[in-house]
Amino acid sequence: MAIVMYDLAGADPALRFSPYCWRIRMALAHKGLPVETVPWRFTDTDAIAFSGQGRVPVIRDGETVVSDSWAIACYLEEHYPDRPSLLGGATGQAHARFINAWADAVLMAGAARLVVRDILDAIDPKDVAYFRSSREQRFGTTLEAVQEDGRANRLAAFRESLTPARLVLRAQPWLGGDSPSYADHILFGTLQWPRCISRFEVLAADDPIVAWQQRALDLYGGLGRSAVRA
Amino acid sequence: MAIVMYDLAGADPALRFSPYCWRIRMALAHKGLPVETVPWRFTDTDAIAFSGQGRVPVIRDGETVVSDSWAIACYLEEHYPDRPSLLGGATGQAHARFINAWADAVLMAGAARLVVRDILDAIDPKDVAYFRSSREQRFGTTLEAVQEDGRANRLAAFRESLTPARLVLRAQPWLGGDSPSYADHILFGTLQWPRCISRFEVLAADDPIVAWQQRALDLYGGLGRSAVRA
How many Cα neighbours within 13 Å face the side chain of A69? Predict the structure, then answer.
């Protein structure tokens, strides 16, 4: 029986844009595990109440329910040890947690300011009021003001914040080394978020990260490349 | 025969403050490898000309010479596989390279602005002119101006830049997981630099990174704690 994953969707149910859900879509494909995704909207809290919390991704694997992308990656690694490794053992996992924390604390915050207003145009109408009010409370201003300021004043800093990944990819083809690991899926999923939800180019065309992203888009039969974009 | 390591020293030859040399001192202790350090000053380029470049750390292990802290860590891991692991296998090593790049690109740059003028007071008199001119060229202003601006305007951003490490250490005792890895030595060595060269506190006393640093200072018989401070 395929693993079921609740996956953030837009007004178009085929538009899947959550950075955390993309990390897990890639992780499942890496493990060669079939998945059946269920489109989910921000306000569908009842639909995932069984998970004991209100955010996606949530997976149901037989009787087991796991939420939170990092916990899901660790679950998949532990429960499917004979499949290709995502984390490369205890130390690889410990170090990947740093990359996960960096993506969440640095990249997500920077990318949000570049595309957050565009999200409103793509999400389900029933989510719009919730999304605007919750995010505007967080930013302390309108989404229009956040995005305008982001694109005008914070694009260079966002690109600069990717320097550690750029330095690594100068020395090795993947963050995981010779082949992709969950570290690549973390960065890929994070960048798949602006890529799917907006037409704004968050990276310069000649950025080495773009060359890596192009290779990652081709992984697993072009899973990322076939994604619907807003 | 002990490994010989050329180690950046101050006017007081016992003052050792290079962030990169500290990473390797910790790595050698982690591996249980005896080391004989040779005090080295910025302008002693002839003394390490045999390494084909002009920076420390440089190690000589029998006939083998290795420079660059990351290359030395990888060398130690490869050549002493029966000793406690620094990197935890190929994927752990690939992921640690990200942490190394982050420390170099983000932390080092931030910490430099907080203590760079203090370095002048501690280094060997013969290094002072070189250090001032090379660093002032890099910063485009005087070391006094850099440090004054750093402490007045950039301390909060430096502390904020440690967020990924803070998030990891909320979930596990070491960056390496249940026990220290080279990832810990990277961060420890980076922080040992301002700690040894300056009395300015770059971290808030209640920062969880300080609690981790205190534990790291006790590793290997208190190697880090016994360091001479300026």
Answer: 29
Distance CA A186, CA A70 (A): 9
Cβ B200 vs Cβ B118: under 8 Å:
yes
Distance from the A93 Cα atom to the nearest Cα atom in chain B, whole angstroms:
7
CB A27 within 8 A of CB A182: yes
Instruction: Output the six-digit token pair for A188.
Output: 């890929």
Q: Are B76 and B33 within 8 A, CB to CB?
A: yes
Nearest CA distance, A92 vs chain B (angstrom): 4
Alpha-carbon distance B220 to B24, whole Å? 13
At a CB cut-off of 8 Å and minimum separation 6, what does B181 contact?
A91, A94, A95, B85, B86, B87, B88, B92, B96, B174, B175
Q: How far apart are the first and last CA of chain A?
A: 31
DSSP A53: S
Cα–Cα distance, B202 to B161 (Å, whole number)? 12
Distance CA B225, CA A53 (A): 44
Q: ipTM of this model?
A: 0.98
Instruction: Choose, out of A77, A85, A95, the residue to mutate when testing the contact with B (most B CBs < 10 Å).
Output: A95
Separation of alpha carbons B67 and A23, rounded Å = 37
pLDDT digits (tens, 9 = 90+) for A125-181: 999 999 999 999 999 999 999 999 999 999 999 999 999 999 999 999 999 999 999
Minimum CA–CA partner of A163 in chain B: B105
Give the type of residue at A129: A
Say yes or no for a CB contact (<8 Å) between B95 and A98.
yes
pLDDT of residue B130: 97
Residues of B in contact with A181 (CB under 8 A): 91, 94-95
Tokens for A91, please give them: 């130390």
Q: Which of B11, B44, B56 is nearest to B197 (CA)?
A: B11
